[in-house]
Amino acid sequence: MLKRIEAISAQGALLNLSLEDLDRGFLLENVEGLDPVKATITSSSFAQLDGSQYQSSRREERNIKLTISLEPDYSVNQSVRDLRRRLYNYFMSKAPVDLRFYDSDGSVAYISGRVESFETNLFSAEPAVDISIICFDPDFYDPTPVRTTGNTVSNMDAIQISYDGSVETGVVFSLSVNRAMTAFTIYHVDPSGALRQLDFAGTLQAGDVLTISTVQGDKYVRLSRAGVLTSFLYGVSPQSAWLELQPGDNFIRVYATGAGVPFTIDHIQKYGGL
Question: pTM score, two decimals?
Protein backbone atom coordinates (compact mmCIF):
# COMPACT_ATOMS: atom_id res chain seq x y z
CA MET A 1 0.00 0.00 0.00
CA LEU A 2 1.27 3.47 -0.90
CA LYS A 3 2.41 5.41 2.20
CA ARG A 4 3.92 8.62 0.91
CA ILE A 5 5.34 10.50 -2.06
CA GLU A 6 8.40 12.68 -2.30
CA ALA A 7 8.44 15.50 -4.87
CA ILE A 8 11.87 16.68 -6.02
CA SER A 9 12.11 20.02 -7.81
CA ALA A 10 14.50 20.86 -10.64
CA GLN A 11 16.67 22.61 -8.03
CA GLY A 12 16.86 19.46 -5.89
CA ALA A 13 14.50 20.61 -3.13
CA LEU A 14 12.46 17.80 -1.55
CA LEU A 15 8.85 17.85 -0.34
CA ASN A 16 7.35 14.99 1.66
CA LEU A 17 3.66 14.23 1.06
CA SER A 18 2.14 11.63 3.37
CA LEU A 19 -1.11 9.75 2.90
CA GLU A 20 -1.24 8.97 6.62
CA ASP A 21 -0.08 11.98 8.61
CA LEU A 22 -0.15 15.75 8.33
CA ASP A 23 3.34 17.00 7.44
CA ARG A 24 4.11 20.73 7.70
CA GLY A 25 0.60 21.68 6.71
CA PHE A 26 0.17 19.15 3.87
CA LEU A 27 -1.80 15.92 3.70
CA LEU A 28 -1.95 13.88 0.51
CA GLU A 29 -5.64 13.12 0.11
CA ASN A 30 -5.69 11.24 -3.20
CA VAL A 31 -3.45 9.97 -6.01
CA GLU A 32 -4.66 8.99 -9.48
CA GLY A 33 -2.86 7.65 -12.53
CA LEU A 34 -0.86 4.77 -11.04
CA ASP A 35 -2.49 1.97 -13.05
CA PRO A 36 -1.07 0.73 -16.37
CA VAL A 37 -1.68 3.35 -19.04
CA LYS A 38 -3.82 2.84 -22.11
CA ALA A 39 -2.17 1.29 -25.16
CA THR A 40 -2.66 2.40 -28.75
CA ILE A 41 -2.86 -0.70 -30.94
CA THR A 42 -2.52 -0.50 -34.70
CA SER A 43 -4.01 -3.14 -36.99
CA SER A 44 -4.75 -3.54 -40.69
CA SER A 45 -7.80 -4.96 -42.46
CA PHE A 46 -7.59 -6.99 -45.64
CA ALA A 47 -10.21 -7.81 -48.25
CA GLN A 48 -11.86 -11.20 -47.88
CA LEU A 49 -10.29 -11.75 -44.45
CA ASP A 50 -12.31 -11.64 -41.23
CA GLY A 51 -11.19 -9.25 -38.51
CA SER A 52 -7.84 -7.53 -38.80
CA GLN A 53 -4.12 -8.17 -38.42
CA TYR A 54 -1.99 -6.78 -35.60
CA GLN A 55 0.72 -4.35 -36.73
CA SER A 56 2.15 -2.54 -33.72
CA SER A 57 1.36 -1.10 -30.30
CA ARG A 58 2.59 1.59 -27.95
CA ARG A 59 1.68 2.76 -24.47
CA GLU A 60 0.51 6.33 -23.97
CA GLU A 61 1.97 8.95 -21.64
CA ARG A 62 0.97 8.86 -17.97
CA ASN A 63 -1.14 11.52 -16.20
CA ILE A 64 -0.64 11.54 -12.42
CA LYS A 65 -3.07 13.63 -10.38
CA LEU A 66 -2.47 14.63 -6.78
CA THR A 67 -4.95 16.13 -4.34
CA ILE A 68 -3.19 17.83 -1.42
CA SER A 69 -5.11 19.12 1.58
CA LEU A 70 -3.88 22.45 3.00
CA GLU A 71 -4.03 22.60 6.79
CA PRO A 72 -2.09 25.64 8.06
CA ASP A 73 -0.84 25.95 11.63
CA TYR A 74 -2.55 29.14 12.73
CA SER A 75 -0.65 29.11 16.04
CA VAL A 76 2.47 30.23 14.15
CA ASN A 77 0.53 32.57 11.84
CA GLN A 78 0.75 30.14 8.92
CA SER A 79 -1.89 30.67 6.22
CA VAL A 80 -3.32 28.79 3.25
CA ARG A 81 -1.53 31.31 1.06
CA ASP A 82 1.82 30.39 2.68
CA LEU A 83 1.24 26.71 1.93
CA ARG A 84 0.22 27.38 -1.67
CA ARG A 85 3.35 29.45 -2.24
CA ARG A 86 5.50 26.67 -0.86
CA LEU A 87 3.91 24.20 -3.27
CA TYR A 88 4.71 26.57 -6.17
CA ASN A 89 8.38 25.70 -5.62
CA TYR A 90 7.63 22.13 -6.69
CA PHE A 91 4.52 22.25 -8.87
CA MET A 92 4.63 25.43 -10.97
CA SER A 93 2.98 24.86 -14.36
CA LYS A 94 5.34 23.41 -17.02
CA ALA A 95 8.13 22.87 -14.46
CA PRO A 96 9.89 19.47 -14.36
CA VAL A 97 9.37 17.38 -11.23
CA ASP A 98 10.49 13.96 -10.03
CA LEU A 99 8.21 11.81 -7.88
CA ARG A 100 9.27 8.99 -5.58
CA PHE A 101 6.65 6.56 -4.32
CA TYR A 102 7.19 4.72 -1.03
CA ASP A 103 5.16 1.59 -0.34
CA SER A 104 4.42 0.00 3.02
CA ASP A 105 6.45 -3.07 1.96
CA GLY A 106 9.59 -0.91 1.72
CA SER A 107 9.73 -0.73 -2.07
CA VAL A 108 10.51 2.56 -3.82
CA ALA A 109 9.73 3.65 -7.39
CA TYR A 110 10.28 6.92 -9.18
CA ILE A 111 9.00 8.70 -12.26
CA SER A 112 9.64 12.07 -13.93
CA GLY A 113 7.20 14.48 -15.52
CA ARG A 114 6.15 18.07 -16.04
CA VAL A 115 3.42 19.94 -14.21
CA GLU A 116 0.36 20.47 -16.39
CA SER A 117 -1.86 22.35 -13.95
CA PHE A 118 -2.16 23.62 -10.36
CA GLU A 119 -5.67 24.43 -9.16
CA THR A 120 -6.82 25.49 -5.69
CA ASN A 121 -10.32 25.56 -4.21
CA LEU A 122 -9.86 28.73 -2.15
CA PHE A 123 -13.46 29.11 -1.08
CA SER A 124 -13.87 25.70 0.52
CA ALA A 125 -13.95 25.16 4.26
CA GLU A 126 -11.28 22.52 3.65
CA PRO A 127 -8.96 24.04 1.01
CA ALA A 128 -7.03 21.64 -1.21
CA VAL A 129 -4.87 21.74 -4.32
CA ASP A 130 -5.35 19.57 -7.41
CA ILE A 131 -2.14 19.03 -9.37
CA SER A 132 -1.82 17.32 -12.75
CA ILE A 133 1.55 15.94 -13.92
CA ILE A 134 2.26 14.55 -17.39
CA CYS A 135 4.88 11.79 -17.48
CA PHE A 136 6.06 11.29 -21.06
CA ASP A 137 7.80 8.05 -20.11
CA PRO A 138 4.90 6.14 -18.50
CA ASP A 139 7.03 3.65 -16.55
CA PHE A 140 8.03 3.69 -12.89
CA TYR A 141 11.66 2.89 -12.07
CA ASP A 142 13.31 1.20 -9.11
CA PRO A 143 16.15 3.59 -8.15
CA THR A 144 18.58 0.75 -7.32
CA PRO A 145 20.37 -0.76 -10.34
CA VAL A 146 20.88 -4.53 -10.48
CA ARG A 147 24.28 -5.87 -11.57
CA THR A 148 25.07 -9.30 -13.01
CA THR A 149 28.66 -10.43 -13.61
CA GLY A 150 30.07 -13.07 -15.90
CA ASN A 151 32.75 -14.06 -18.39
CA THR A 152 32.68 -14.75 -22.11
CA VAL A 153 32.49 -18.44 -22.94
CA SER A 154 33.34 -20.66 -25.88
CA ASN A 155 30.68 -23.23 -24.97
CA MET A 156 26.90 -23.19 -24.37
CA ASP A 157 26.98 -22.01 -20.75
CA ALA A 158 24.60 -19.10 -20.01
CA ILE A 159 23.91 -16.92 -17.00
CA GLN A 160 20.39 -16.39 -15.68
CA ILE A 161 18.93 -12.96 -14.95
CA SER A 162 15.61 -13.05 -13.12
CA TYR A 163 13.92 -9.78 -13.97
CA ASP A 164 11.19 -8.73 -11.52
CA GLY A 165 9.87 -5.71 -13.45
CA SER A 166 6.54 -5.75 -15.27
CA VAL A 167 7.69 -4.17 -18.57
CA GLU A 168 10.78 -4.74 -20.71
CA THR A 169 14.00 -2.95 -19.80
CA GLY A 170 17.27 -2.26 -21.56
CA VAL A 171 20.70 -3.03 -20.11
CA VAL A 172 24.19 -1.56 -19.95
CA PHE A 173 26.72 -4.24 -20.96
CA SER A 174 30.35 -3.51 -20.10
CA LEU A 175 33.22 -5.71 -21.30
CA SER A 176 36.56 -5.29 -19.47
CA VAL A 177 38.97 -6.51 -22.14
CA ASN A 178 42.02 -8.35 -20.79
CA ARG A 179 43.37 -9.77 -24.05
CA ALA A 180 43.26 -9.12 -27.76
CA MET A 181 39.93 -10.04 -29.37
CA THR A 182 38.09 -9.19 -32.58
CA ALA A 183 34.52 -10.42 -32.13
CA PHE A 184 31.88 -11.67 -29.73
CA THR A 185 28.16 -12.44 -29.76
CA ILE A 186 25.57 -11.86 -27.05
CA TYR A 187 22.79 -14.47 -27.16
CA HIS A 188 19.58 -13.75 -25.25
CA VAL A 189 16.79 -16.26 -24.60
CA ASP A 190 13.78 -14.53 -23.04
CA PRO A 191 11.12 -16.19 -20.81
CA SER A 192 9.04 -17.12 -23.87
CA GLY A 193 11.98 -19.04 -25.35
CA ALA A 194 12.61 -16.53 -28.15
CA LEU A 195 16.27 -16.20 -29.14
CA ARG A 196 17.87 -12.89 -30.12
CA GLN A 197 21.50 -12.01 -30.67
CA LEU A 198 23.81 -9.03 -30.90
CA ASP A 199 26.97 -9.44 -32.98
CA PHE A 200 30.04 -7.29 -32.43
CA ALA A 201 33.14 -7.17 -34.63
CA GLY A 202 36.09 -4.85 -34.04
CA THR A 203 39.66 -4.81 -32.81
CA LEU A 204 39.88 -4.76 -29.01
CA GLN A 205 43.04 -4.86 -26.94
CA ALA A 206 43.91 -5.46 -23.30
CA GLY A 207 42.91 -2.50 -21.14
CA ASP A 208 39.93 -1.52 -23.31
CA VAL A 209 36.46 -1.15 -21.82
CA LEU A 210 33.60 -1.58 -24.30
CA THR A 211 30.16 -0.44 -23.16
CA ILE A 212 26.91 -1.19 -24.98
CA SER A 213 23.69 0.46 -23.77
CA THR A 214 20.36 -0.85 -25.00
CA VAL A 215 18.35 1.49 -22.77
CA GLN A 216 15.43 3.08 -24.61
CA GLY A 217 16.29 6.68 -25.46
CA ASP A 218 19.97 6.20 -24.56
CA LYS A 219 21.37 3.52 -26.88
CA TYR A 220 25.08 3.68 -27.63
CA VAL A 221 28.32 1.73 -28.08
CA ARG A 222 31.43 3.34 -26.57
CA LEU A 223 35.06 2.32 -26.35
CA SER A 224 37.33 3.58 -23.58
CA ARG A 225 41.00 3.20 -24.53
CA ALA A 226 43.88 4.84 -22.66
CA GLY A 227 41.49 7.34 -21.11
CA VAL A 228 39.93 8.35 -24.46
CA LEU A 229 36.21 7.68 -25.01
CA THR A 230 34.98 7.14 -28.59
CA SER A 231 31.84 5.88 -30.28
CA PHE A 232 32.09 2.31 -31.59
CA LEU A 233 28.56 1.92 -32.94
CA TYR A 234 29.87 0.62 -36.26
CA GLY A 235 31.14 -2.47 -34.44
CA VAL A 236 27.58 -3.76 -33.93
CA SER A 237 26.07 -5.62 -36.87
CA PRO A 238 23.03 -3.82 -38.39
CA GLN A 239 21.11 -7.11 -38.12
CA SER A 240 21.66 -7.28 -34.36
CA ALA A 241 18.82 -7.11 -31.84
CA TRP A 242 19.23 -4.64 -28.98
CA LEU A 243 18.93 -6.73 -25.84
CA GLU A 244 15.92 -6.03 -23.59
CA LEU A 245 15.14 -8.09 -20.53
CA GLN A 246 11.58 -9.38 -20.32
CA PRO A 247 9.67 -10.07 -17.08
CA GLY A 248 10.76 -13.45 -15.78
CA ASP A 249 13.88 -15.57 -16.27
CA ASN A 250 16.25 -14.41 -19.02
CA PHE A 251 19.33 -16.35 -20.12
CA ILE A 252 22.41 -14.56 -21.48
CA ARG A 253 25.41 -16.16 -23.16
CA VAL A 254 28.34 -14.04 -24.33
CA TYR A 255 30.27 -16.15 -26.83
CA ALA A 256 33.89 -15.48 -27.82
CA THR A 257 36.73 -17.78 -28.76
CA GLY A 258 39.67 -18.01 -26.40
CA ALA A 259 40.00 -17.35 -22.68
CA GLY A 260 37.11 -15.79 -20.80
CA VAL A 261 36.80 -12.00 -20.67
CA PRO A 262 34.90 -10.48 -17.71
CA PHE A 263 31.76 -8.42 -18.20
CA THR A 264 28.96 -6.81 -16.22
CA ILE A 265 25.30 -6.32 -17.11
CA ASP A 266 23.42 -3.56 -15.28
CA HIS A 267 19.68 -3.05 -15.48
CA ILE A 268 16.93 -1.07 -13.78
CA GLN A 269 13.61 -2.64 -12.77
CA LYS A 270 10.74 -0.95 -14.61
CA TYR A 271 7.05 -1.15 -13.73
CA GLY A 272 4.09 -0.34 -15.93
CA GLY A 273 1.97 0.47 -12.88
CA LEU A 274 2.06 0.56 -9.09
Answer: 0.88
